[in-house]
């Protein structure tokens, strides 16, 4: 039954400032006008016909399951060749780059990576992973968390990395020294709070996170939380406005953020 | 004759006037007439509410397969799973009856919103694990086409339970059970606690258990609205009214041991509308009692507990409302962003709220200090006398606020626990005598965090007749009669 839209003026909290439906997250760039018209027509039909609504739900489910399929864990490869090869294969399949200890960066080219070239690195631990722009999610992170000597991890602009994924990173606390989360649309200050486990972290990049409500304050709190780490991100003075005539009043009263 | 002529003229005049009004009336009221005819036609055609006498759109339907009493997070969760697990699309008609659509007194909206796996019963741990999985994938479960995705504002910061010397052994055995079930919890010694959380005063603490993953707190209102939206899209009817009566039939049956018992079956639910005496009898096959703090009253309406004490007929549903306070205060030098929800040995708990060094917390009162659950007024003296001293002892940073002024409580509220006076754990499943009433209530403060899993369990019980995913046979109603307590340690 189509949802009665008039009565549904409920508080449906949206991403901070980014109101996108699930389909839009992975939609390609298309001319705005025609996309809007197409969407409106589909919505019109879905409100009136059960079949169209069921079809749209099915397409939505297909998109979701596609992401899940890409993030399945390669248990066979893990058992046969070890966690390092499995993790590297996973990253290369997603479209990222991997660097073994003492080797050069291995980029993923267009074709599927063959495990043959990775077979020689069975006992060599993976040092760095660059998973920028990959569709990696909570389940897919399983493959990365097995890499116990990982020193540098880059998850820039990953659309499915969210606070839940960050809460899993404590398993890499012993080795991780560099972490980059720049541009991830779903990471908020609540996920950043659980990075306090990573006491060996030396470089943390939290710039350009649209879901963080107060970037300047978050930067200060992160620096307090990880004293040995260099936190790159927003300038702490970003959120402040200069009000020279009211300065004396401001210092008198405590200002809760 | 003259008078007759006058009458005739007058009559003709009247006739003439009538003719003219007819002509004039048809010209003026034509649009009105057309709209009247349109309205009547629309109500006669299928899809319209054919009731020319009065509008009945606010009344619930006359028949419904399942009636869920209570539209909080548990009731909506049961509705969701019933529609999701039904064999055919649209097979089950579900009606949710909620008395207060602003949810002003409902436990869901007033909850602190925490979720943890640190329980001692394996069933509770499994319920919580399932619910955490549900919340993590909430946009896969509750996705509605064209609506924005839900943001639960989940803080994965974990729970930290502190135990003194006496409780240390229990805590350790609890953590063992939790790890067996798959929860990610670790034990911490006082030294490790001091290293990790330097703002804790570890005097008197022998052991701490810290949840590493899958624990934290979220926005319960968002979950409620997400469930409502999805459940409406799946075709569940909502009704704004109060259940005042159950009409049931009784059968005298004999048990295998020859004892005579009376089996009841509810046939009709009378739903009374707000601010009126109007009510609608809804014929139903199954009734689900998810009324939260008022489940005891709803059970009494169905005749549960009316009998000689000590028998199965005389066993009441031991769920009653208990009031709990939550206070919000501000402390600029308080624990940092990494602080979990800390639960002290004395029963006091607190957590951070947002980026601005605001904290919220409270304490469970002892049996003698139980406040009167008549209303939701907040007692600020309770904070000053019971909560603050213990909190300031455990977290010295809070103590610094005592001088020169007493601690600044920014705001406070009160909410109800649907408190199970028997063993403080939920009641799930059918009643042994009232064959078609199912319970999903009595969770005494951890209903929100177990709601998705309990909803699935009750839906499985209704549709399949047994629990399939998680075995909740320990939480059936019959334990009240048999006297088997399933007690949890460390409930606060």
Shape of chain A: flat
Question: Per CATH, what is the topology of the largest domain in chain B?
Answer: FAD/NAD(P)-binding domain
What strand order characterises the main sheet of chain A? 2-1-3-4-5-6-7
Question: What is the CATH architecture descriptor of the largest domain in chain B?
Answer: 3-Layer(bba) Sandwich
Kindly state the percentage of residues in helix of chain B. 25-40%
Neighbour order of strands in the largest sheet of chain B = 5-6-4-12-13-14-11-15
Contiguous helical run count of chain B: 13
Order of helices and strands of chain B: HHEHEEHHEHEHEEHEEEHEEEEHHEEEHH
For the record, give the distance between the C-alpha atoms at the N and C termini of chain B, rounded to a whole number. Answer: 101 Å
- In terms of DSSP E residues, the strand content of chain B is 15-25%
Q: Residue-averaged pLDDT of chain A, rounded?
A: 79
Q: Given the C-alpha coordinates, what overall shape of chain B results? A: globular
Q: What are the low-pLDDT stretches of chain A, counting only 5+ consecutive residues below 50?
A: 1-31, 246-257
Greatest interface: A-B, 52 and 44 residues
Give the helices and strands of chain A as they follow along the chain. Answer: HHHHHEEHEHEHEHEHEH
Largest sheet of chain B, in brief, is: 8 strands, mixed
Biggest sheet statistics of chain A: 7 strands, mixed
